[in-house]
Design brief:
The chain is α/β, with parallel strands linked by helices. It has five domains: about 200 residues, Rossmann fold (3-Layer(aba) Sandwich), CATH 3.40.50; about 70 residues; about 230 residues, P-loop containing nucleotide triphosphate hydrolases (Rossmann fold); about 160 residues, PCRA, domain 4 (Orthogonal Bundle), CATH 1.10.486; about 55 residues, Beta Barrel (Thrombin, subunit H). The chain contains 33 helices and 24 strands. Helix 7 packs across helix 10 and helix 25 packs antiparallel against helix 27. The longest helix has 24 residues.
Length: about 850
């Protein structure tokens, strides 16, 4: 196989011969590194954990470490650097090249690395090297056909849900064999799991018949490859003598097993990451992978990068005060030498429309005053549907913007059509691609013909292309369909002969010889012109690929490139436009100005963290991930950070009252500036007598343009179910649903305290943040403190007279609890208003005490 290392070569003795001090003129000496950064760069042998806070120069450390290894005469081919996005991989590659020109170190995403490895050893897992990587639409199509064959209704059992369930199984290394065994043993399963267990083996069988894999298979097959072939595992272990893994907190079980297998014999493994930025649990990421690194590798060195070079002191203190409430983390204290900067601003608007309009207006005012450039500004949201009002307002205010949704280009129908031709040329067994193009453009091959063709192909174990070539032997076919199938087979045979040349030329041939899009060329219809433009843009992308790849270009590599894209690969931070994206997509980016919209309970944190977990432990873990997600969003900001919320927001076609995020109560910094603004704050456009919301004494909105407000209790209300990755759900939410309900706190008049549904009684994750200011506490210390202080402290009782520095004298009318903390509702006599407070956070003083 060519990678075996001579048995007498001792890596550790070789390393010691090279010495540990950088030679004169090395990149390490020439670069400005902090002491912790230098320690991580200079570490040579053995496992290393680099705990890297946001903006702490993590990429700089990784690239300088690679350069330092090269200076120590470690051959680049003996190194492997893995990360999660193409953008991050390309940035690292460029930085290493700048430090050590011509180094050619392999920096790759996990999926790309696994795809390359699988192509080399495909036969060991039952594949051919020209396998196709199915996208989400392909996967759901296969599942839909499997449901039909199993006599299950695809309208009752959504392919998307089954696909997600299968993906979760694969991330946990649950194979079809394991599922089948569980079914045979009659393991306890709910009905949906039983359906998934029936579909999963059939789905996997169809993938193999098409010589195809899905994204999760890229990892699952490599785990199988390494575990089932000890000699190959050992060979690869010795080939990649030094392994560097970025964003280790985002690894799932499959990725964890791959890394463990490749760093078993020669554990020169360096991982960088931050438990506080682990935000992908919903797609299988395991925060425990980084938390237990020192248990997996007892000899590991740990380096903490705690100096932030990105954000102002104000932003950093606010973010730090939030994340300190998490238990499952590694102790560290972020600090910066940057200026204190502007206060973090917390804006409260009457409605989503006000929120969007004020943000758009403020951005335009700042640009006109030459404070910022358009591309300096980013707007983040927890769920996709929140972008609608923002986009409309930006358009009204003539603010140029881009939405981070790069996958949309490769999901457009005309682009997928052209790629399906390329996929069929590369892999004739790819049935999903062949079915897409066999009558596209129309060539007289109808549905009944396809049924007969597919039946014939299955009976004789042929691909659809092979079956088309034998159309004359299919007795059920008449002359017309037979001629059409033979013509299609001849067309594809001719195109396959051109499949070894430049990809751009092949695409031009496909466009010409299939007559695809001919009608668009002469059309004056703008939509059809846009579709033609998308096809031309795909050819442009292929041309760039051909030029960059040079002699190593191949159709297989181009298809792999188009398959393994992520939405952040298309974010241009210097586009001259404001950027809109989800909080998840913002990971790894930075902007001078950041707006985080929808800072409300059931959005941030999302209602699923509160209501859809099976037990308190899972609820706690989900809530911690929501807190980490907000922390990630906050720490993208360099100069200004704005958090916005509304008093009411449309959901499922109705205006619903919102509740302030419970995370407000956890941010205890003087840098927070609280404001209430928008038309609702001034009473514009509202008839207070006619508007039932304005008659709600529990949430009266004060007059005035800029008003302070207290950190209120985060008693629970929810908005409709929405997945940040599900545009179908987002569309449904905007459209409205007859099933939509608002779960609001119900007051028990017997007990005098609110009953807040599933969230009531959740264990407090940490004591008040003020207790943490004087000492750095680990997760274990926080948990111990939590246990010691688990009882709710009853500071007030119903009927107590209290004083507030702004609202004056009042009376406690209700008491309750929220997350193991007392909440109180106070009616103030001055204007008969009521306000809700978290007792240990508010400036209420019992009358008679100073």
């Amino acid at each position: 196989m060519g990678f075996l290392v001579p048995a007498n070569l001792n890596f550790y003795s070789l390393a010691r011969l090279k010495g540990s001090h950088p030679p004169k003129g090395s990149c390490v000496v020439q670069s400005r590194l902090t002491e912790p950064q230098r320690e991580a760069v200079e570490h040579f042998e053995g496992p290393l954990l680099v705990l890297a806070g946001p903006g702490s120069g993590k990429t700089r450390v990784i690239t300088h470490r690679i350069a330092r290894l090269i200076e120590r005469d470690v051959p680049p081919r003996r190194m492997l650097a893995l990360t999660f996005t193409n953008k991050a991989a390309e940035e690292m590659q460029h930085r290493v090249e700048a430090l050590v020109p011509g180094s050619r170190v392999w920096v790759s995403t996990f999926h790309r690395f696994c795809a390359r490895l699988l192509r080399e050893y495909a036969e060991l897992v039952g594949l051919s090297s020209n396998f196709t990587i199915f996208d989400t639409d392909d996967q759901r199509g296969v599942i839909k056909r499997a449901l039909t064959d199993l006599n299950l209704d695809s309208t009752q059992y959504a392919p998307a849900k089954i696909n997600a369930a299968i993906s979760r199984m694969k991330n946990e290394l649950v194979t079809p064999d394991i599922v089948e065994a569980a079914r045979r043993e009659q393991a306890a399963m709910d009905f949906k799991t039983v359906v998934t267990a029936r579909v999963y083996p059939e789905y996997q069988k169809r993938l193999r018949e098409s010589n195809a894999v899905d994204f999760d298979d890229l990892l699952l097959h490599v785990v199988s490859l390494l575990q089932g072939n000890p000699e190959l595992r050992s060979e690869l272990d010795h080939q990649y003598r030094f392994i560097l893994v970025d964003e280790y907190q985002d690894t799932n079980k499959a990725q964890y097993e791959i890394i463990r297998a490749l760093a078993h014999d020669v554990p020169n493994l360096c991982v960088t990451g931050d438990p506080d930025q682990s935000i992908y649990g919903w797609r299988g990421a395991r925060i425990d992978n980084i938390l237990r690194f020192e248990s997996d590798y007892p000899d590991a060195n740990v380096v903490r990068l705690e100096e932030n070079f990105r954000s102002t002191q104000s932003i950093l203190r606010v973010a730090d005060s939030l994340i300190e409430h998490n238990v499952h983390r590694k102790a560290k204290r972020l600090h910066t030498d940057n200026e204190s900067g502007d206060e973090v601003k917390l804006h409260r608007f009457w409605s989503g429309k006000d929120e969007a309009e004020e943000i758009a207006s403020q951005i335009r005012r700042d640009i006109e005053a030459s404070v910022w450039e358009w591309s300096d500004v980013a707007i983040f949201y927890r769920v996709n549907w929140l972008s609608r009002e923002i986009e409309l307002a930006l358009g009204r205010n003539r603010v140029p913007y881009q939405v981070a949704a790069g996958l949309a280009f490769y999901e457009r129908a005309e682009v997928k059509d052209m790629l399906a031709y390329l996929r069929t040329i590369e892999n004739p067994a790819d049935r999903a691609a062949a079915l897409r193009i066999i009558n596209n453009p129309p060539r007289g091959i109808g549905k009944s013909t396809l049924i007969k063709l597919t039946r014939f192909a299955d009976k004789h174990e042929l691909t659809l292309l092979e079956a088309a070539e034998h159309a004359k032997t299919i007795p059920e076919l008449s002359a017309g369909p037979t001629k059409a199938l033979l013509g299609f087979a001849e067309l594809m045979r001719g195109l396959r002969e051109k499949g070894t040349g430049p990809v751009a030329e092949l695409l031009r041939a496909v466009l010409s010889e299939t007559s695809y899009g001919d009608d668009w060329r002469e059309s004056s219809d703008e939509h059809e012109q846009q579709r033609l433009g998308n096809v031309i843009e795909l050819i442009n992308a292929a041309q760039q690929f051909d030029e960059q790849a040079g002699e190593s270009r191949s159709l297989q590599a181009f298809l792999e490139t188009t398959s393994l894209v992520s939405e952040t690969d298309f974010v241009d931070e210097s586009s001259g436009k404001v950027t809109l994206m989800t909080l998840h997509a913002a990971k790894g980016l930075e902007f001078p100005v950041v707006y985080i919209v929808g800072f409300e309970q059931n959005l941030i944190p999302h209602e699923r963290a509160m209501y859809e977990q099976e037990d308190l432990r899972r609820m706690q873990m989900a809530l911690e991930e929501e807190r980490r997600l907000l922390f990630v969003g906050m720490t993208r900001a360099m100069k200004q950070l704005h958090l916005t919320s509304t008093v009411e927001r449309y959901s499922f076609g109705r205006p619903l009252r919102t509740v302030r995020s419970q995370f407000e109560t956890e941010i205890e910094c003087e840098e927070i500036d609280h404001t209430l603004e928008g038309r609702g704050a001034r009473g514009e456009g509202r008839d207070r007598k006619a508007d039932p919301f304005m008659q709600d004494e529990n949430q009266d909105v004060p007059d005035g343009d800029w008003q302070d407000f207290n950190f209120g209790a985060a008693i629970s209300a929810t908005e409709p179910d929405d997945d940040p990755e599900s545009p179908e759900d987002a569309h449904r939410a905007e459209r409205g649903s007859p099933d939509s309900t608002l779960r609001r706190p119900q007051v028990s008049h017997d007990s005098g305290r609110p009953e807040v549904g599933p969230s009531d009684g959740v264990e407090r994750l940490a004591p008040s943040a003020s207790e943490l200011k004087s000492k750095l506490m680990t997760g274990a210390a926080l948990l111990q403190s939590q246990t010691e202080n688990s009882e709710v402290t009853a500071r007030f009782t119903v009927g107590d007279a209290v004083r507030h520095p702004r609202y004056g004298l009042g009376e406690v009318v209700e008491v309750g609890r929220m997350m193991q903390r007392q909440t109180v509702i106070v009616r103030f006599g001055q204007d008969d208003r009521t306000e809700t407070f978290v007792a240990d956070k508010c400036p209420l003083t019992p009358v008679g005490l100073r």
